[in-house]
Amino acid sequence: MNAPFSFRARRWAARFGHVLILAAFVTFLAFPFYWMVLTTFKETKDLIDIRHNPFLFNLPPTLENLRILFEDTLFGTWILNTLQVGVLVTLITLVLAVPAGYALARLTGRWSQRLAIGIFLTYLIPPTILFIPFSRIIGDLGLQDSLWSLVLVYPSFTVPFCTWLMMGFFKSIPRDIEEAAMIDGLSRFHAFVKVVVPVSSAGILTVVIFTLTLVMQEFVYALTFITSSSHYTVSVGVPTFLVRGDVYFWGSLMGACLIVSLPVAILYNFFVDRFVAGFTVGAVK
After folding, report:
1. Which residues have CB under 8 Å from 174's CB, separation 6+?
2. What is the pTM of this model?
3. pLDDT digit string (tens) for 97-113?
4. In whole angstroms, what is the distance from residue 88 CA to residue 99 CA?
5. Which class is 73-284 in CATH?
6. Which residue from 79, 81, 74, 85 is spatially nearest to 241, judged by alpha carbons?
């Protein structure tokens, strides 16, 4: 009688430990969103009063912070600008990185590895070194204070990394799949488009999420090239208008962070398996 009881006790203890660890991780990961929601709907005097509990609503919730965000700033315009730049940069990155990654993956010999390392090393160059020469190029092209300046510059650091990422992913796809497609009458290009690309959807999704996230959070180039508030992206417009000297509009700041981060978090949550697969396969290979 003691042995089965001891076994059940150990099993329930193990389950309880797993649940406890999972609850700790969920709490840790969900807390930033809870804090953003709490701060977004708190009154300013509730936020700054040190006698109030910071983890609860001590006064009734308010929509004033969201009103300031949408009526006193161009937050809606900044979101549209960010989406416009993000979509265009993502398309450019896919058009360049996917074929380049495939070509490097199928290239044989020592040059394949050397080219891959060289391409990845260009991604490691700090943006603070490049924004001055890029400013000269943007000025010569007449793209200053234009969203097209960001569309032109951002692929310079999304394409190298995504090429390296896709190269590792394509190396994990057996060549036999393409050879079988070509035996059936397809050209190499059609075999790539109709066979290889659908199989590599996890890597392509990884490129899309990585590029969109980078565009949303990039600050240096957006601040350097854009001067009109109507052309700002979210990463520049929010701190510029909601941080005035030593005055921080915490409720509106957190509201902006919440609105921008929720779609990304939902996208990650829906495709987390493919995203992790794309990153781990690309990194390992």
Report:
1. none
2. 0.82
3. 999 888 888 876 677 67
4. 17
5. mainly alpha
6. 74
